Amino acid sequence: MIPSLIIRDVQLNLNRLEMYRNLFLDKFLVYHAISRSELKILTLIPKHKTCYIRDLARDGHYDHSNASRIVKNLEEKGFILTSVPPFDKRSKQVRLTAQGRELTRNFEEALLQRFGEFIINCQTEKLSNLIEILADLNMYLAREKEAEKNNCILRQKAKPGS
Q1: Cys-Cys link to 67, which of 12, 22, 23, 57 (CB 3.0-4.6 A)?
Q2: Residue 30: C-alpha distances to residues 27, 35, 36, 104 (Å)
């Protein structure tokens, strides 16, 4: 297949997947009255043994102030609790409440209900290949983002008067 046709097909399929994902997510988010950012933060917390706002900012690709704002909103809604550890008064530790655990469990169950049949009926080799391709794409995009960030820094340093 010609590379431009491959790119077009990949783009078309990614657009369709994003559309289906958005339809699924939008229903869930409206029903539970939370935002995408809030859901993302909620699903990141269990991935850490001990979770701090800086972990959520890094893993969620937010700057620290945005992650702090999202955490504050989630705390006000009763989904998380924050505490200041005695050894570092500048940090905030974050953990899910029972309500937060229930919401993340509901999200995982809704995902499984929506896509579980496909996953169960899909060949293991195909799923492994998909996971590998997505991991490769993620690493490629992370490298591109880092290179773009470095180029911006170099351009700023090169400006007269900087």
Answers
A1: 57
A2: 5, 8, 10, 15
Q: Across the chain, which distance is largest between two alpha carbons, in Å? A: 61
| 40 in Cβ contact with 79 (< 8 Å) | no
For residue 124, what are its two tokens? 């293991």
pTM of the complete model beyond 0.85: no
DSSP, collapsed to helix, strand or coil, labels residue 33 as coil
Taking alpha carbons only, the member of 94, 43, 85 closest to residue 64 is 94
For residue 22, count other CB atoms closer than 10 A to its CB: 12
Tokens of 106: 């509901």
> Exposure string (b/e) for 124-134, b if CB count within 10 Å is 16 or more?
eeeeeeeeeee
The pLDDT tens digits for 6-36 are: 888 888 888 888 888 888 899 999 999 999 9
What is the per-residue pLDDT across 48-61, written as a single tens digit (0 to 9) for each? Answer: 888 999 999 999 99
